[in-house]
Amino acid sequence: MKALRYRGSDLLFVVCVYSFLLLSLLVVGLPFFYVITSSFTTEHEYLSRGFFLIPREWTIEAYGYLLHNRNFLQAFENSIMITFFGTLINIVLTSLMAYGLSKSWLKGRRLLNFMVLFSMIFAGGLIPTYLVTRELGLLNSYWALFLNSAIAPFNLIVMRSFFQAIPTELEEAAKIDGSSEYRIFVQIMLPLSLPALATFTLFYAVFNWNTYFYAILFLNNSSDWPLQVFLRQMLIESDQSMEADAGMFQYTPAVKMAAVLVSSAPLLVVYPFLQKYFNKGMLLGSVKG
């Protein structure tokens, strides 16, 4: 294998690029590594040693606290439910509307496309959104989270472009065989759109898992709070106690670090398996045809 040779200017560019990547790795990786190691340390060592990367005494007590904390487990369960049903609603409505707007024969298509673009640039506002949600009787309901973020305009526009790039000959052949519009959408368009569907499913799943502002705005019962709101209560307040069946639970620094790590674990596990769909799903709609 021949060794790579660079000219002076090229070598300087390569050195700068790798230096920037190494710096970015340190900026991102060092805090994350600190969170991991701090979750396995004791409270005494955390408070006495100050900043450190490798604890002298390893313990899993922080994770034991979380596993026996009913409020944390309830919040975790709420986030899983919000993510699953919210993402399902998001991807179904987005794909249906994108498929409809991709049809040139659709009456009022230009107006609808303009309304989608307008909603992406100008939001309705916090107070009007809250008032409409209240008048619809959706306060203290997960439907307030699902419906207020049902369709992301950017995702809709990209998926519409993806459907438009699929050859119309496929639809014409299916119609000649007697297929209905619904059957064409389900059996032809959706299978051909799997890369885009996987990409936007991950986008919506990350959004729903990290939902925070709408949960604070529309959910007043702490038992309905998702994990991010619970973490906020845990992290911004000083060490506190919570009564449970096994006794009093204290949110020590190690417990807080463990909670942050556990809350990010699902996305860290799922992301590598869907990462390959990002470039494929985002680019096919613009170059295919």
TrEMBL record:
Record keyword Nucleotide-binding present: no
Record-linked InterPro entries: MetI-like, MetI-like_sf
Stretches that traverse the bilayer: 12-36, 80-99, 111-131, 143-163, 184-207, 254-274
Sections of the chain in a coiled coil: none
Topology class, membrane: Multi-pass membrane protein
Compartments, as annotated in UniProt: Cell membrane
Domain ABC transmembrane type-1 stretches: 76-270
GO cellular component terms given for this protein: plasma membrane
The organism's place on the tree of life at top rank: Bacteria
Family annotation (SUPFAM superfamilies): MetI-like
GO BP terms: transmembrane transport
CDD domains: TM_PBP2
Alphabetical keyword list: Cell membrane, Membrane, Transmembrane, Transmembrane helix, Transport
Similarity-based family: Belongs to the binding-protein-dependent transport system permease family.
Protein name, entry field: ABC transporter permease
Species assigned in the record: Paenibacillus montaniterrae
